[in-house]
Specification:
388 residues, five-stranded mixed beta sheet, 60s Ribosomal Protein L30, Chain: A, Spore Coat Polysaccharide Biosynthesis Protein SpsA, Chain A, alpha/beta, single chain
Length: 388
């Protein structure tokens, strides 16, 4: 069994081009319920108590995508093949002298804590262990039925004694194998197979994102709804170049919103709605108007902070809706840009962000053009956990 002196590293391989996936970004950087696919894999290992170090191998051309997915982590640049990329990752891990390593494909974002735990404990006994799912469908080769006895499909992460797999990658350098366990087989090293995880799917095609979302929705059953409301006065600009900011977008107008920050009522309302889903106070408690650090601050900072608090609790933002209430300026010409900016800040697909506008038919302070109000409703999904 493992003891506290064992060091277990995780190596996430994210250097593929994902040509079969298509789209504007490689599959490991596509968004899955508000987070890049790679970020789900990273969080699974970083948050696991038995993993002491996480290393990530990426394609050199994906550095900008990686920054969005991994924040302050430093990447390892991979090679021309998966095997070469794994070898470069193992080389980088040597300095930390891990006893064992779990090698995982970034395109499997749903790996569970229990799967990682099982592999960590089993690799101590066997030295090489992989998860597999028994084949239950009929198998045919060239139209003829084959026996499926003993057949299984293999998943990642695959766990190994570090010196064993590192040495095998050096020994078989330049050859091509489909996974790391195949190197053990080539060297007549025993590999143990333990039950895999059926929802530990590999993202290969765009429709796999929808399938992964279905699995995640079943896990994130704690659905929360938060409401936010904000008002700011419209005034003449007091500074040269001062702009009216609404939902993160600069809007041409002869007046601006008055406030300690940039007074963006739209982003403030969304921020409060998000904080409401996790019962964490309001925007003023996190960013006091008495604090000089937030003087003229971009309200995107507040919104990002609220989103990070949700993520720190293991949650995801599922949907954002905001309504702006004003007689002027006209919102319709800017609605698309506003949705895009909110989606960008929260790292959400555009179809999960709604921006609407209405007037009060000339009634009240908004009707008289004295100010702008915003109301927002946000839906968040959290895993069921006690005390959260």
């Amino acid at each position: 069994m493992l003891n506290k002196n064992n060091k277990i590293a995780a190596l996430i391989v994210a250097a593929g081009s994902g040509e079969r996936f298509g789209g504007d970004v490689p599959k490991q950087y596509a968004f899955l319920m508000g987070k890049p696919v790679l970020a789900w894999s990273i969080d699974a290992f970083k948050n696991h108590p038995l993993i002491s170090e996480v290393a990530i191998v990426i394609h050199p051309d994906h550095a900008d995508h990686f920054k969005n997915a991994a924040k302050d982590m430093a990447p390892i640049f991979g090679g021309g093949s998966r095997q070469e990329s794994v070898q470069k990752g193992l080389q980088a891990l040597r300095a930390g002298q891990p006893d064992f390593v779990l090698i995982h494909d970034a395109a499997r974002p749903l790996v569970s804590e229990s799967m990682i735990t099982a592999l960590c404990h089993e690799v101590m006994e066997s030295g090489a262990v992989i998860p597999g799912i028994a084949v239950t469908d009929t198998v045919k080769r060239n139209g003829k039925t084959e026996s499926r006895e003993g057949l299984c499909t293999v998943q990642t992460p695959q766990a190994f004694n570090f010196e064993l797999i590192d040495g095998l990658h050096l020994k078989y350098q330049g050859k091509s194998y489909t996974d790391d366990a195949a190197l053990c087989e080539a060297d007549n090293q025993a590999v143990k197979i333990i039950p895999g995880q059926r929802d530990n799917i590999k993202i290969t095609h765009p429709e796999d994102i929808s399938l992964a979302e279905q699995y995640l929705f079943s896990q994130y059953g704690d659905v929360r709804t938060g409401q936010g409301y904000d008002v700011h006065r419209l005034v003449a600009p007091s500074l040269a170049g001062q702009k009216l900011m609404l939902c993160g977008v600069s809007i041409p107008h002869d007046k601006v919103l008055e406030g300690h920050s940039d007074a963006d009522v739209g982003l403030h309302a969304i921020t409060d709605a998000i904080l409401g889903t996790i019962c964490d106070g309001d925007i003023g408690q996190h960013f006091s108007p008495k604090d000089s650090r937030w003087k003229n601050a971009d309200s995107a900072t507040f919104l990002k902070h609220a989103a990070e608090l949700v993520m720190s609790r293991g949650g995801v933002i599922a949907h954002v809706d905001v309504t702006l209430v004003c007689e002027a300026p006209k919102i319709a010409p800017h609605r698309g840009s506003m949705r895009q900016r909110i989606a960008e800040i929260l790292q959400l697909p555009l179809n999960r962000v709604s921006v609407k506008a209405t007037t009060t038919e000339g009634l009240g302070f908004t009707g008289r053009g004295e100010g702008i109000a915003a109301q927002s409703i946000v839906t968040v999904r959290l895993p069921f956990r006690s005390g959260q």
